[in-house]
Amino acid sequence: MNYRQLGNTELKVSEVSFGTWAIGGDWGTNRDEDGIKGLALAMEQGVNFFDTADVYGSGHAEELLAKATKGKADSIHIATKFCRFGDIHDPENYTEQKVREYCEQSLKRLQRERIDLYQIHCPPIEIMRDGSIFAVLDKLKQEGKIRHYGVSVETIEEGLLCMKSPGVKALQVIFNLFRQQPAELLLPQAQANGVGILVRLPLASGLLTGKFKENSTFQANDHRNFNANGEQFNVGETFAGLPFVKGVELARELEWIADGRGNMARASMRWILDHPAVTCVIPGFKNEAQVEDNLSTLNVPSFAPEEMDRLSSFYQNQVAPFIRGGV
User: Fold this and answer.
1) Could you tell me the CA-to-CA distances from 263 to 73, 92, 212, 257, 299 in Å, in that order?
2) Which of 19, 96, 110, 218 makes an SS bond possible with 224, Cβ 3.0 to 4.6 Å?
3) What is a GO molecular function of this protein (predicted)?
4) pLDDT grade, residue 31 (50/70/90)?
């Protein structure tokens, strides 16, 4: 395993880490036993960082992490997120009393005394402009409830705004072959400011595995069904904001990236890790096989400059015009 510094913090985290949305819920049916086994395998292979949120399975993902990482609080770092249990547009949702309540509930579910990275979970830009939420998080940090804090953002504008607050040590962003825009300004700025970058949705909700066909379907409790067009939350969180059928068509044009790299998923994450501003990718998983496959990204050769140029042109000319949900 390779490790990278999380911005200018003291934390060093595994280049390939894992998100727990899929094992918590909203990605179709899954078994807790498979999730626990996947977490155990990841840790055996050197993964020391996991991302979760209080709303993943209404706290279930945090509880699974607690079970899998029991007794490992010093060596396994956990990032969780808050705010989406309430009305994200209501300023009362970000008061010290409310945030403290969210924090204590997560600590209880995680069975930990401190959260390594506490992130605001895609709040409206007005909340970030106001900035009072950061004073609340500074207080929790001083009390030792959290080690560091950051923000999960939807757009480049939000990320740039958050970096103006000195306490923000990490940004969680959507960045993949179908969402390349952050590479132009956000990533260089983050690197210059010592802000870590956690990349969620590295495979665009599975599109970049190349396994889907235009007629593929998803279970009723899978967000790729119920949020395909942004019905429940920002459409950018599902298929990177692409209409599904268009995404399948575009993924087919990227099949060449798998040559010499095992498969499209590994190649897609290798492309992300080839950007030095990136701290880690946090793909989801449901079982040991998916964990193993994602970790194989570490053995994949990097992209040559001409390949990077080809992929950049592909994004600008064929992908960008179809992206929804803001970038």
Assistant:
1) 34, 46, 14, 8, 12
2) 218
3) oxidoreductase activity
4) confident
Residue 53 CA to residue 113 CA, distance in Å, equals 17
Identify which has the larger pLDDT, 325 or 197: 197
pLDDT at 26 over 80: no
Identify the CA nearest to 239 among candidates 206, 285, 283, 199: 206
Ordered structural domains, the chain, with CATH: 13-322 (3.20.20.100)
- CA proximity to 171, closest of 181, 285, 182, 179: 182
The angle formed by the CA atoms of residues 166, 98 and 75, to the nearest 5 degrees, is 60
Give SS3 for 306.
helix
Q: Which amino acid is at 36?
A: I
SS3 6: coil
Query: How does strand 280-281 pair with strand 196-200?
Result: parallel
* CA distance linking residue 31 with residue 23, whole number of Å: 8
DSSP characters for 134-168?
HHHHHHHHHTTSEEEEEEE-SSHHHHHHHTTSTTE
User: Quick one: angle between helices 132-142 and 96-110, nearest 10?
Assistant: 50
pLDDT, position 325: 83
Sign of CA dihedral 121, 122, 127, 132: positive
Using one digit for the tens of pLDDT, what is the confidence trace for 264-313? 999 999 999 999 999 999 999 989 999 999 999 999 999 999 999 999 99
Cα dihedral: 292, 293, 299, 301 (round 10): -170
In single-letter form, the type of residue at position 189 comes to: Q
pLDDT in tens, 147-200: 999 999 999 999 999 999 999 999 999 999 999 999 999 999 999 999 999 999
Contact 120, 152 (CB under 8 A): yes
Cβ pair 276, 268 in contact under 8 A: no
The bridge status of strand 12-14 relative to strand 3-5 is antiparallel
Predicted pLDDT at 106: 98
Residues 6+ apart with CB under 8 A from 216: 244, 248
